[in-house]
C-alpha cells in the first residue's frame, strides 16, 4: 500500500495507520514551538548552560539547524508538492497555523535532524538525549497530517547531511572537490 494513499475521513486510522482524530495537546504544542527553530534555540540554551562539549554541541547544533532549515526551504522552492488532503480532518485542524508551502521536505524534520546530528557528533550523550525530541517533532508532522511520510523521511535525510557537513567541514571540502575538481575550497 502506498504511503501516499488517500486519507480516509472516518474516525479510525488512515492508510498510514495514524488516527485522523484531533491529536493530544503535546503533539500540537511541540509542532508549534518547533516552527522556525524556536524549540532548538531553547534546547541549545539548556545545553550551553555549562561549559564544555555540550556548549560546543549547542553552537554547532544551531549552525547545523540554520543550515538545514535553509536547505529545506531551498528544496521546497524547487519541489512543488501538495500537502496531504487533510484540511477537513480534526488532526490537521488542530494546528494553530495551517501550512501552505510545498510539502517536500518537512523543514521541521530537516531542522530537527540537522540539529540532532550536529549535537550527537560533538557530544554523543547530549545527542542521545536530544534524539527522542527530534523524533517526536517528526511524528508531530505526520500525526497532524501536515506532511506525507516521505516528506518527513526526506527532511531527516537532508538534515542529517547538513548536520554532518557542519561538524565535518574537512570532509565537506573533500566531497566538494570530488564533485567540482577546480573548486577552490
What would you say about this model in short?
The chain has 185 residues and is mainly α. Helix content is 62%, strand content 0%.
User: What's the gyration radius in Å?
Assistant: 17 Å
The major beta sheet can be summarized as:
none
Mean pLDDT: 77
- What's the overall geometry? globular
Order of helices and strands: HHHHHHHH
What do you see in this structure?
This protein has 185 residues and is mostly helical. The protein is 62% helix and 0% strand. It is built from eight helices and no strands. It starts with 24 loop residues before the first helix and ends in a 6-residue tail after the last helix. Mean pLDDT is 77; it is low at 1-10.
Offer a few descriptive terms:
8 helices; mainly alpha; 185 residues
Question: Mind sketching the topology for me?
Answer:
Elements: H1 25-33, H2 38-47, H3 53-78, H4 90-93, H5 107-122, H6 124-143, H7 149-167, H8 169-179
Helix pairs in contact: 1-6, 2-3, 3-5, 3-7, 5-6, 5-7, 7-8
Amino acid at each position: 500500500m502506498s504511503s501516499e494513499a488517500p486519507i480516509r475521513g472516518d474516525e479510525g486510522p488512515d492508510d498510514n495507520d495514524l488516527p485522523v482524530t484531533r491529536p493530544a495537546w503535546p503533539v500540537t504544542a511541540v509542532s508549534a514551538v518547533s516552527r522556525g527553530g524556536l524549540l532548538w534555540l531553547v534546547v541549545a540554551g539548556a545545553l550551553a548552560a555549562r561549559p564544555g562539549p555540550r556548549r560546543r554541541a549547542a553552537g554547532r547544533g544551531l549552525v547545523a539547524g540554520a543550515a538545514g532549515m535553509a536547505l529545506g526551504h531551498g528544496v521546497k522552492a524547487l519541489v512543488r508538492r501538495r500537502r496531504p488532503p487533510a484540511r477537513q480532518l480534526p488532526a490537521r485542524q488542530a494546528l494553530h497555523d495551517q501550512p501552505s508551502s510545498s510539502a517536500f521536505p518537512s523543514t521541521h524534520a530537516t531542522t530537527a535532524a540537522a540539529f540532532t546530528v550536529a549535537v550527537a557528533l560533538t557530544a554523543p550523550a547530549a545527542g542521545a538525549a536530544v534524539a527522542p525530541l527530534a523524533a517526536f517533532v517528526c511524528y508531530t508532522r505526520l500525526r497532524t497530517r501536515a506532511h506525507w511520510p516521505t516528506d518527513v523521511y526526506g527532511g531527516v535525510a537532508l538534515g542529517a547531511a547538513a548536520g554532518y557537513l557542519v561538524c565535518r567541514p574537512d570532509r565537506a571540502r573533500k566531497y566538494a572537490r570530488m564533485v567540482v575538481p577546480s573548486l577552490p575550497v
